[in-house]
Amino acid sequence: QAQLVESGGGLVQAGGSLRLSCAASKRTDGVYAMGWFRQAPGKEREFVASISYDGGRTNYADSVKGRFTTSRDNAENTVFLQMSSLKAEDTAVYYCAAGNTVYLSMILSSPQQYQYWGQGTQVTVSS
After folding, report:
1. Sign of the Cα pseudo-torsion (123, 112, 21, 58, in order)
2. pLDDT digits (tens, 9 = 90+) for 27-52
């Protein structure tokens, strides 16, 4: 069973950047798409970004498109979320997730499609 650990969160001023990492604790035998979600206080968890196993396809929420970039290094079992031009409304706990896929280029956007989740890392953007 894959275990995911996020890191890289913290406090940053509006307009700044952060890079989140998500490391899998063990190599998985299957093919996994990876995703990023976030949850702000009093709000439901929302989709942020996803990336296919082969890294060839990505998808982003409209609210972060053009500012966030996700990538992955399968040799290191790590996925990244580069966040730039951060806004106060980006403040949330960020979670990474892994979901089995049939195809190497498949991406997943719904939380129900992911089987494994990290514990989350706090991102706070001060205005």
Report:
1. negative
2. 556 789 999 999 999 999 999 999 99
